[in-house]
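haha ok so turns out i had the wrong file open the whole time. this is the CORRECT one, sorry everyone. sequence first:
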Amino acid sequence: MMTKKTMVSLGSGRSPRPIYENKETEGWEKRFKAEFEDSFPNLKLRKLPRSYNLDFAVWQDKPEKVLALIEYKQRRYSCDEMGKMGGVKISLNKIKHSLEYSDLFGVPVRLIYKLSDNQAKEYYRFDVTEENVRQCRIGFINLVSRGDAEDVEPSLIIPMNMFQKKSLLG
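then structure:
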């Protein structure tokens, strides 16, 4: 799997940070978007700019408004395998932004995970709320395999029992 590495400036004379993307993860997001919009014809998933730290806004045309924000992930592990690894690790910075957006705009933020044991149109969902976040623990994401020291960052570790298994329509 070829990884696309792009540099993004941090401003104030700081060194740019690499951004890691690949065709596979972009394809996963496109399939999720298509599946979502097929299930909810009156709604659209709008891809958010990278600066928002989340993937999608759930958009309603009439009346025009954002109904929710989504961070989408897909993994090659089952729920049991993720549990044995301690649960889902997600950037603490991403969680901070999620809580701020939810509070500021009054919309829910959802982490949506497609795991290897999900059926079609079935996902694991974690609602990002202060109450839920406080039930999790803080650890570190250690992606030192990419040779980027800044890939070691504080993370929220979410136990798998805090995820709800949902269909898109459920």
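The radius of gyration is 16 Å.
again sry for the mixup
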